[in-house]
Design goal:
about 100 residues, transcription, alpha+beta, HTH_MetalResp_TranReg, WH_DNA-bd_sf, ArsR family transcriptional regulator, 3-stranded antiparallel beta sheet, DNA-binding
Length: about 100
């Protein structure tokens, strides 16, 4: 996969409302999948599929801690993407009034 294809994969992964919500939920640090399951109101199978897509895009990483799987953003660069999009949205909505 070349750089352009990976970039598109990242945007596609972040483009889904549930996956965006997962990334925002993990913005401030790792969380157990059980906490994600409480916050994201979907079945375990559905949540697992979204987590898989985010991992395959390089956005999330995970590690087993005891009996639980903990997910986190794979890098602070993901936070920068989220921050920049949030700034753009504020600027866009302010300018469109």
């Amino acid at each position: 996969m070349d750089k352009e294809e990976l970039s598109v994969k990242v945007f596609k992964a972040l483009g889904h409302p549930i996956r965006y919500k997962i990334v925002k939920f993990l913005y401030n640090g790792p969380k157990c999948v059980c906490k994600l399951n409480e916050d994201i109101e979907f079945s375990q199978a559905n949540l697992s599929q979204h987590l898989k897509i985010l991992k395959e895009a390089g956005i999330l990483s995970c590690e087993k801690v005891g009996m639980n799987m903990h997910y986190r953003l794979s890098s602070d660069e993901i936070k920068n993407i989220i921050d920049n999009v949030d700034k753009f949205v504020v600027s866009f909505t302010d300018n469109s009034k």
